[in-house]
Design goal:
With 382 residues, the chain is α+β, with helices and mostly antiparallel strands. It contains eleven helices and 13 strands. The longest helix is centred in the N-terminal third of the chain and has 31 residues, at 40-70.
Length: 382
């Protein structure tokens, strides 16, 4: 499903914007904004639900406890009253459905930006080599890799599949070529012959695991050398993987550091992601009573998620998408936080804010000491 959405929805949109402005960086930004706008009704529903639940949750918890205590011996009445409570305030799970609906599109968008043309596309084959006397008892079953859309020109991409006709189990001494082909059966090599500079998209092959178990030729032919497990990988270069945008040196560049040198463009993108996430979380609490636990989480969560990308690096193009998406999310949160609440929730919020203000005033007065005197002030005559 994710591949279908990518091939039939996201890539055509990407082609359209690249046709308008021949810049893959701008195409990423435009694609992100279009998808976020399309998903606005769903994500807005999640934000509204989270905001309302944050207000109603203390009251709901108190009333749930009261209902369960009052009708402890009458389960039917208890369920009836709990149902009325859910109807009054809404279910805490109501905001999850819009999020689940939009997830396939967001995953497809993420997968699109991690593949061609923004990054080199890997085809991985896990091979098991068996002794010659054992392979005879194994029934060959063809193995097909997932399909990836490979850009061979700025606006021309073809779905390419990798196939091992005899499957991933080979006998010692066997050789098996990896066949890269389109869904219609045309070889990838024949596609490249019709493209100017097609040789630049020829895959590079390597053994990433089990070098003594298999070897691989430049044309993708695997040779089984000894019993064991091995992994063979072929990479097709991404058309825009080495293209820059603004301060980004290469959209396909991965990693905070390369050969001991800091990639400052990646560092800036990661920092921008963390800052935009922090701002979005702060905006989600606008107009709400102070919550020390939530405030701490708002500070720690962005730092933890941002630091994660230093250990699990992503291509620069994906980070660009995430920064733009976070900025859009922050703007959306700001707008929805100013939206009028239902009367019952507004009354609860007003009461919560009044209680919070009273608590702050009382705390300040207690800290000041008698007659408003600060603790460090000397005692005066009355």
């Amino acid at each position: 499903m994710i591949g279908y959405i990518s091939d039939n929805l996201l890539l055509p949109i990407l082609d359209f914007f690249y046709g308008l402005v021949p810049s893959y960086g701008l195409a990423i930004i435009a694609l992100t904004v279009v998808i976020r706008l399309a998903l606005f009704p769903l994500s807005a529903g999640s934000i509204r639900s989270a905001r309302r639940m944050r207000i109603a949750q203390p009251v709901m918890q108190q009333r749930q406890a009261e209902i369960k205590s009052k009708y402890a011996n009458n389960p039917t009445k208890q369920q009836e009253e709990l149902g009325k409570l859910m109807k009054e305030f809404g279910s805490p799970l109501s905001g999850c459905l819009p999020l689940l609906v939009q997830m396939p599109i967001l995953f497809a968008l993420f997968a699109t930006l991690r593949g061609s043309p923004f990054a080199d596309v890997p085809y991985t084959f896990n091979v098991k080599v068996l002794p010659a006397e054992q392979i005879a008892a194994v029934e060959p079953k063809p193995f097909n890799s997932p399909s990836h859309s490979i850009f061979v020109t700025a606006t021309n991409h073809v779905p390419v599949i990798g196939t091992l006709e005899k499957g991933t189990k080979l006998g010692v001494g066997d050789s098996e070529p990896v066949q890269l082909h389109t869904r219609t059966g045309d070889s990838f090599a024949s596609v490249l012959k019709e493209v100017e500079n097609g040789d630049s998209f020829a895959p590079s092959w390597s053994v990433t695991k089990g070098e003594g178990i298999v070897s691989v030729d430049a044309d993708g032919t695997i040779h089984a050398l000894a019993p064991g497990d091995a992994t063979v990988e072929g990479k097709i270069p991404g058309l825009a993987a080495r293209s820059g945008f603004l301060f980004i040196k290469a959209l396909g560049q991965v990693g905070f550091m390369t050969d001991g040198a800091v990639n400052w463009d990646i560092a800036i993108l990661v920092a921008a992601f963390g800052a935009s996430l922090f701002i979005s979380q702060i905006l989600s609490g606008m107009g709400m009573p102070a919550n020390p636990q939530q405030s701490t989480a708002n500070k720690i969560t962005p730092v933890m998620i941002t630091a994660m990308f230093l250990f699990f690096p992503l291509p620069a193009g994906v980070l660009l998408y995430m920064v733009v998406a976070n900025i859009f999310q922050a703007a959306q949160t700001f707008l929805l936080s100013r939206e009028a609440l239902p009367d019952n929730l507004q009354a609860i919020l007003d009461k919560q804010l009044a209680q919070a203000a009273t608590t702050v005033t009382a705390t300040a007065g207690a800290g000041a000491g008698p007659a408003g005197r600060m603790p460090f002030e000397p005692k005066g005559k009355k």
